[in-house]
Amino acid sequence: MRQFADMVGVSHGTISRLVAPNNEENNVSLEFLLKLSKATNTPLTLLLKMVDPTIQVDADELSASTYLMAQRIEGAPDNVRDIIIGILDTTEGRQKKS
Predict the structure, then answer these.
(1) How many domains does the chain have?
(2) What is the pTM of this model?
């Protein structure tokens, strides 16, 4: 997790809070998503859509972005991939409870 935090440019504590399943108070900030987007070369619009499915994104862009993002995540080291998926899953669960 520390390597991923370093790669994204945030503290280990930030990543720990985001992936903690019982911590519903922390939402993903736009600043974090910008850093994650740059570090993983994933379009920001796709990350926003994953965090909040109600955000409207051009369907053509989303389809291409989804494909590219899936390739990047699949090609990432297991520990990085698991952290990304954990953050997105945790964030999605918080959105559903709201």
Answers:
(1) 1
(2) 0.56
- Alpha-carbon span 20 to 62, nearest angstrom: 28
Give the tens place of pLDDT for each residue, 60-76: 555 566 767 777 887 88
Domain that holds residue 37: 2-97
Two tokens, residue 47: 């990350």
Torsion angle of C-alpha atoms 24, 26, 27, 33, degrees rounded to 10: -140
Q: What are the pLDDT digits (tens) for 3-30? A: 988 999 999 988 888 887 776 665 778 8
- In sequence order, what are the residues at sequence separation of 6 or more whose Cβ sits closer than 8 angstroms to the Cβ of residue 39? 7, 8, 9
